[in-house]
């Protein structure tokens, strides 16, 4: 089972906004995020995904294609497939940087024809989590 990562969808205002950013890199074949350090468990992430946090909930994932070191400053690129796969919304507290996510803790992908609107909105999920009801 692959290991995954979670990261805040910084500056995205909606899943559509995040999807648009990812798809804008489709002609390049990949989207890239920059991180200061190579994840120590990067080898376990073969076949894994980066799960995006928006409004205190996991809302989608992008498959991880690999990691590549930038030559100019030693930072690393997280190479992602330029797509957003919708997942069942799952409450997740915001954090800085990225965190690991085990496969058994990852939310399931939405089935074909299943609408993300059928799933609890992220803000409502966060509020119910804050109240201890989810």
Automatic annotation (TrEMBL):
<dbReference type="Pfam" id="PF07370">
    <property type="entry name" value="DUF1489"/>
</dbReference>
<protein>
    <submittedName>
        <fullName>DUF1489 family protein</fullName>
    </submittedName>
</protein>
<dbReference type="InterPro" id="IPR008320">
    <property type="entry name" value="UCP032025"/>
</dbReference>
